[in-house]
Amino acid sequence: MRRSNFSLRMLDRSFQLPLTIPDLEYTVEKYGQAAIGGPRRASVGVQGEERALWELLEWLRAPVEILDRRKDTVWWGYLDGVEVAIGAIRVRVTLDGMANRVAVAYAFVEPGSETAGTRATTAWVQDDDSLSTYGTREVLAQLGSATVDQAETARAALLEMMRYPQPQIEVQRALLAGGKKTVAKTAGGSGKLLLRGWWDTLDWTYYAQNAGKEAHEADGNGTQDLGRVSGNQRAAQGFQLVGSGWEAAAVKVKIRKQGTPSDDVIVELCANSSGAPGTVLVSSSAAAAVIPASMNWHTFNFAPLISGGYQYLQPSTTYWLVVRRAGSVNNDNYYVVDVDEGLAYPRGVMRLYNGSSWVARDPDADMNFQVLGGRETTLQIEDIVASNGQFITGIVVEDRSNVISNQYRRGDTTALFEIQELLRSGNNTGRRLLARINRNRELVVSLEPERDSYNAQIYIKRDGAVENQWGDPYYAATCPVGQWALLKDVIPSSLDLGRMADPSMLFIEEAEYDAERDVYTPWARGQDSARSLASRILEG
After folding, report:
1. Which structural domain, as residue segments, surrounds residue 44?
2. At 454, is the pLDDT very low, low, confident or very high (cuts 50, 70, 90)?
3. Mind listing the pLDDT tens digit for each residue in 464-501?
4. Same domain, 441 and 466
5. Which of 400, 416, 447 is a domain's end point?
6. Residues 267, 316: one domain?
7. Is the pLDDT of residue 539 over 50?
8. Considering only CA atoms, which of 433, 431, 429 is closest in space to residue 377?
9. What is the spatial distance between Cα 248 and Cα 428, in angstroms, rounded to a whole number?
10. Residues 16-26: pLDDT tens digits?
11. How do strand 101-108 and strand 89-94 relate by DSSP bridges?
12. Nearest to 508 by CA among 521, 490, 492
């Protein structure tokens, strides 16, 4: 690279071979880092011969690294877009807005009907050529009320329109005078490489996880008294898991109370015994006071097993969910559960206990229920990366969260969204979790470092200058983030800090390095990134 202390290294899209980039003049302008994600956006100016500039368009999604004057890699990611300016014409092509795998969610309408029905989603369709070139980039479009044919037609139209990057062409009017072109014809032009970190590619695909939920949630068209008379002392619903097994952490039952019962509601997860509930595996209870007077879902959480974790449920194995009251039957004060007399649940039957045996309900029905799994959140992040991290080579979890949550995902949100939500829950001691993509394209999950003013690595002075712990200028090209910085000679020692968090230390959430000016600009956590930490200090 000419006229710069920085250089670029590019590979082909398969990550196998070094890419011989066009013979142009490249100038690294800016690049950024974040405590959540690692390398973010970067920009590189280019100048040179027109044909070489146009050749850059052929390398969208190619891996890119930025090296400093010491030949250390300070940024890594991929080529997300290219801008080319030739005379008065500016062309911009990016991967934004491109999708090579499309599905449509809609409210199903029967042909000839005007009444919208339940949510439906088409199957996914894809363009294999685009997918093999750029990787999988999905869009789940929302259509509103539609028939199946309408939804599938819209899906085909969207795929045709979005399967390849679409150029944006601009005529720069400032370069035109009196409606006549005044730009000199030259053999050269200029442009820009628009780079992004690999973290952003986790937003390209939607994440679905079928494990962690077995349920029947039909619109209630019936109810079943519970604990009113001897014939309904208990209600049970059989069920089976499909696919893989998982640990059951909670159940939900749609229930209400009638009158003023004072005894607890008990929910038991039981093994199967000759087509009826058998051995109780785990149980949970709820006081009468928390059971609503109107029909609603109530959650019963199971305690972890002594051996750790929760009760594991095998796939294709019958289990029973039993609901009962702790006290005796009472004709005036009892409980009521929601049932579906349409018998829409395919993997189990409902039974009632009459004091001596389990019998079928008359009329027959299925009880509405949800059995919910529990999985540690950093294990869930591992699952997401394994499923959707098409460019991520692995995951390194340096610190486990030890926090359990339900792992079921419908598939309406992206992998990036789900990972960010899991990170926000932190660990079981209340500390925050960070994640970054390292140079090997591994996702590294770790705890946010603890605040320690005696071991700060970065010092920010009144004029915005940045120093290391020895008082020397900080090597800004590394663009450090995810660290605590200490303000130096900014806050007067006489300030009473007894009733506030120490304002002399700030966590660097994001940062940007301006390579042309050799300026490092950090942003503190909770700060609007439009105003840098340095500018805030200078403004007082």
Report:
1. 7-96+167-203
2. confident
3. 788 887 877 778 899 999 999 988 776 666 555 555 45
4. no
5. 447
6. yes
7. no
8. 433
9. 20
10. 999 887 889 99
11. unpaired
12. 521
Answer yes or no: are the C-beta atoms of 199 and 40 closer than 8 Å: yes
**Does residue 503 lie in a domain region?**
yes
Q: How confident is the model at residue 180 (pLDDT cuts 50, 70, 90)?
A: low
Question: Same domain for 415 and 354?
Answer: no
Q: Looking at this protein, which amino acid is placed at residue 455?
A: N
The H or E element spanning position 62 is none
- For position 537, what pLDDT does the model report? 40
**367 & 306 share domain:** yes
Extract long-range pairs of 25-29: CB within 8 Å, 24+ residues apart.
25/1, 26/1, 26/2, 26/193, 27/1, 27/3, 27/515, 27/516, 28/1, 28/4, 28/66, 28/515, 28/516, 29/192, 29/514, 29/515, 29/516
**How does strand 246-258 pair with strand 319-325?**
unpaired
CA–CA gap between residue 329 and residue 343 (Å, rounded): 27
Q: Render the burial of 251-280: b for 16+ CB within 10 Å, e for the rest.
A: bbbbbbbbeebebbbbbbbbebeeebbeee
Among 447, 478, 506, identify where a domain stops: 447
pLDDT exceeds 70 at position 61: yes
Q: Residues 278, 217: one domain?
A: yes
Residue 262: closest CA among 334, 323, 322, 336: 334
Query: pLDDT tens across 237-279, in order?
Result: 999 999 999 999 999 999 999 999 999 999 999 999 999 999 9
Quick check: is 453 in a domain?
no
What is the domain count for the chain?
Answer: 5
